[in-house]
TrEMBL record:
EC number(s) given by UniProt: 5.1.1.7
Site description Important for dimerization, residues in chain: F270
Reactions catalysed: (2S,6S)-2,6-diaminopimelate = meso-2,6-diaminopimelate
Name of the protein described by the UniProt record: Diaminopimelate epimerase
Top-rank taxon: Bacteria
PROSITE patterns from the UniProt entry: DAP_EPIMERASE
Function description: Catalyzes the stereoinversion of LL-2,6-diaminopimelate (L,L-DAP) to meso-diaminopimelate (meso-DAP), a precursor of L-lysine and an essential component of the bacterial peptidoglycan.
Natural source organism: Sulfuricaulis limicola
GO terms classed as biological process: lysine biosynthetic process via diaminopimelate
Binding-site list for substrate: N13, Q46, N66, G76, N77, N159, N192, E210, R211, G220, T221
Subcellular localization(s) per the UniProt record: Cytoplasm
UniProt-annotated catalytic positions: C75, C219
Length: 279
């Protein structure tokens, strides 16, 4: 039986989104990989599934599957598309919704100009919470990658991130070194590898090799992690524009113990139906 879907993107980070509230949707890793395939499926970085909540006080449950078929904790660009989807499908009339994720609750909000802001929660720095194998917490860690030492800020935005400073993001080894960092043995759940170029205290450029998806045109949690890493090093102000390959996100953070806010676009590209049993 065919089921409807929406193809969406947030700053070029693209998604196939299903409504699992109106009808049950069964997705296996094999089906997800096929859906995400840009030659034999619809094509996307992640598949998003909207479901009824299992947590008291939540409006919806938000499930995220990377292109490799694995389910992950958080996706910031996807959260913005999630809000646009549930509003467009009339699953809610609220401007601000409470959303259950594997990483905990988030509270995205539809703005008057059509952009979506997301309270991404409080960043976590303790190695065990990332998770990352280290004896003590530090602002910058040494990682041995391919026989060389890489200096990276390591933190969790609901999912793990390792952020490097680079002089020129266009020349950064995203697609050669990124896969090595993603699967570095000190990250038991793998990691998203970010490469940040600081333009000035309110502007950065960023590329991210995403865990389970490869380099994407934008990574919302990666933008938040990079901004936080720069703030922790004393290099950035509390409001920053993050320029990614696919567009620009606005990120703000008041400091340790406070939540990170991210604002950006959420666009529906097209809609269709697909027979999941034939994948």
């Amino acid at each position: 039986m065919s089921v409807p879907f929406s193809k969406m993107h947030g700053a070029g980070n693209d998604f196939v989104v299903f409504d699992g509230v109106s009808r049950p949707i069964q997705l296996t890793p094999q089906k997800i990989r096929r859906l995400a395939d840009r030659h034999f499926g619809i094509g996307c970085d992640q598949v998003l599934l909207v479901e009824r909540p299992t947590t008291a006080g939540a409006d919806f449950r938000y499930r995220i599957f990377n292109a490799d078929g694995g389910e992950v904790e958080q996706c910031g660009n996807g959260a913005r598309c999630f809000v646009r989807f549930v509003r467009d499908k009339r699953l809610t009339a609220k401007d601000e919704i409470a959303v259950e994720t594997l990483a905990g609750m988030i509270y995205p909000r539809l703005e008057a100009d059509g952009d979506v802001s997301v309270n991404m929660g409080v960043p976590r720095f303790e190695p065990a919470e990332v998770p990352f194998e280290a004896a003590v917490r530090e602002n910058v860690y040494d990682l041995e990658v391919d026989g060389r030492i890489v200096k990276a800020s390591i933190l969790s935005m609901g999912n793990p991130h390792a952020v490097q400073l680079v002089p020129d993001v266009d020349a950064a080894p995203v697609n050669t070194q990124g896969p090595q960092i993603e699967r570095h043995p000190r990250f038991p759940r793998r990691v998203n590898a970010g490469y940040m170029q600081i333009v000035d205290r309110r502007h950065i450029r960023l590329r991210v090799y995403e865990r389970g998806a490869g380099e994407t045109l934008a990574c919302g949690t990666g933008a938040c992690a990079a901004m936080v890493a720069g703030r922790q090093r004393g290099l950035l102000d509390d409001k920053v524009e993050v320029k990614l390959t696919g567009g620009t996100l606005r990120v703000s953070w008041a400091g340790e113990g406070q939540p990170v806010w991210m604002t950006g676009p959420a666009i529906t590209v097209f809609e269709g139906t697909i027979d999941l049993e034939k994948l």
